[in-house]
Structure formats: structure tokens, C-alpha cells
DNA sequence: CGTTTTTGACCTGCGC
DNA sequence: GCGCAGGTCAAAAACG
């Protein structure tokens, strides 16, 4: 766990591994709010400002259906519920789409992305709620062990990164 | 020409 | 054991 989590300062709570008896699934659910506490996600938050959205009870069971049962390590997932028109919430990393499936309860398909960096197997999936077209749930899986690969476009990103690294 | 998207097939876990 | 649902692979197309 020497890898720092650039985007999730609160993610340090995932290394507890205290009571992962049988549940291989761990998910932390964040909501895209304007909480300027120390999320370090401001670069992204700038694109989404949704004070209200209290929908909870989001069930998603992760089943680590790996191929050959190599690594059944627990994989923390972080879900972000945002309100945006587009699904592509650019967080600064390079993603390559590797799949798209339709969900049962959802009319909209779910997109699966993967970080294109070598050795970085961070995955993310973007889901759109059928109830509210404007609500997009982005679920991150894994941690990035490399700096953000995005040219400094504007001050928002710079500030975002500064706050991210300042958290450590 | 290299990289990414698209899209169907394939795999796996779970419930019946 | 079979079918369903979710997740991934991989070949070809699309894009710069």
C-alpha cells in the first residue's frame, strides 16, 4: 500500500482489512456535493454542482469473478454519484473503454473503462440512472499509482492536484 | 499508422 | 444443471 491514492484522501480507510471475513466487496459511496472539506476532487467537482440528491440505497454486489482465481484480493470500489449531461467525467487520467453492457434495471448501458497506464489496473465504470437521466454514477475500482496524465489545462486542475498532494 | 471505440462472444457466480 | 446477469476479451472498425 505504498501507493498513494491521489484522489481519495478518505480512501486510507480501505487498508483496515479488519473485518473482511466473507465479504469480498467493499464500496464507499460518495456523493457529488459541494463539500469543500478536503475531498481533493474539486477539479471534477467544478463540472458538477448538485447540492440536492439524497438518493441512496444503491445496491451493487461485486462478485470477483476473476478468470483463474489468481487474485481474490479485496477490491475497494468508490462510487461517485454526480449530475452531468455527459458520461465522460474526465478526472485527469487516460481511460480506455473495454466493454459496455446493459443493466437489468437500467435502460442505459454501463460503460467499463480501464486506465491505459502500464501497471495501472485501475478500472472504472460509468452508469446512468434510468430514473434520472442527468444522474451519472461513476464507480472507481483500484488506486492509481502514478501521477495524473493530463496537461495543465486550467487552474482548476492545477489546484485540484495541489490539494490532492497536499493531503499527504 | 497507432490508438481507441465498438460490439458480439465468452466466462463466471448465483439462484432456481 | 440450466439460465440469467454481470464482467471481460478480442477482432474489426473508426478516428486522429
Automatic annotation (TrEMBL):
The keyword Ligase does not apply. Keywords: DNA-binding, Nucleus, Transcription, Transcription regulation. It comes from the Eukaryota. Residues 84-149 form the WRKY domain. It is found in: Nucleus. Residues 10-23 have a biased composition (Polar residues). Pfam families: WRKY. InterPro entries: WRKY_dom, WRKY_dom_sf, WRKY_plant. Residues 1-25 are annotated as: Disordered. This is WRKY transcription factor.
Amino acid at each position: 500500500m505504498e501507493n498513494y491514492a491521489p484522489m481519495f484522501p478518505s480512501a486510507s480507510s480501505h487498508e483496515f482489512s479488519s473485518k473482511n471475513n466473507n465479504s469480498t466487496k467493499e464500496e464507499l459511496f460518495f456523493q457529488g456535493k459541494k463539500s469543500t472539506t478536503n475531498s481533493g476532487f474539486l477539479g471534477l467537482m467544478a463540472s458538477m454542482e448538485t447540492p440536492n440528491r439524497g438518493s441512496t440505497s444503491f445496491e451493487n454486489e461485486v462478485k470477483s469473478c476473476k478468470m483463474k482465481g489468481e487474485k481474490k484480493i479485496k477490491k475497494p470500489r468508490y462510487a461517485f454519484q454526480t449530475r452531468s449531461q455527459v458520461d465522460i467525467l474526465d478526472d485527469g487520467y487516460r481511460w480506455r473503454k473495454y466493454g459496455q453492457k446493459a443493466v437489468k434495471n437500467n435502460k442505459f448501458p454501463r460503460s467499463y473503462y480501464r486506465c491505459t497506464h502500464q501497471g495501472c489496473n485501475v478500472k472504472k465504470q460509468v452508469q446512468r440512472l434510468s430514473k434520472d437521466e442527468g444522474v451519472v454514477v461513476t464507480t472507481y475500482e483500484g488506486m492509481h499509482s502514478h501521477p495524473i496524465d493530463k496537461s495543465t489545462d486550467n487552474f482548476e486542475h492545477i489546484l485540484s492536484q495541489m490539494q490532492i498532494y497536499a493531503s499527504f
